[in-house]
Design brief:
Length: 137
């Protein structure tokens, strides 16, 4: 079964993201039948991603609180800075999704690819599914 909340796409490259930083952890666990070791790592990475993105969110808040917004040039500069910060959040999410995908076994990764194709999204490429992972429990 495909859950739209699990696989999200960035507007620019339409890559297929798991959404590790979102609220879909339980869906990821169930859909990909993660084992205990994978769940532990996923939880650690989710916490680390949350910390990294909080720093960026704080920068965004500071941007809106301190940047001048009276002229068109100031608004354009603020928009460009905001876009860069937003891209940083997307890149952070993609990096942590890639970490999780790298510990998927072959069956889990093939399921991910199939869901991405169903959603017409480009799967994140990894070197190879983890050969050392046990089958999902």
């Amino acid at each position: 079964m495909f859950y739209a909340c699990v696989l999200v796409a960035t507007g620019q490259d339409r890559e297929c993201l798991l959404g590790l930083g979102g609220t879909a952890s339980e869906t990821i666990i169930q859909d990909f039948q993660l084992n205990k070791e994978q769940i532990t790592k996923m939880d650690q990475w989710k916490a680390a991603l949350s910390q990294e993105n909080k720093i960026v969110q704080d920068e965004i808040t500071q941007l809106f609180d301190t940047e001048g917004q009276s002229s068109e040039e100031e608004l354009q500069a603020m928009a460009n800075t905001y876009r860069g910060l937003k891209d940083k959040v997307i890149e952070n999410s993609k990096a942590y999704d890639r970490k999780l995908l790298n510990i998927f076994n072959e069956k889990q990764y093939l399921r991910y690819v199939a869901l991405c194709k169903e959603a017409r999204r480009k799967p994140i490429a990894i070197l190879s599914p983890s050969q050392g992972s046990k089958d999902p429990e």
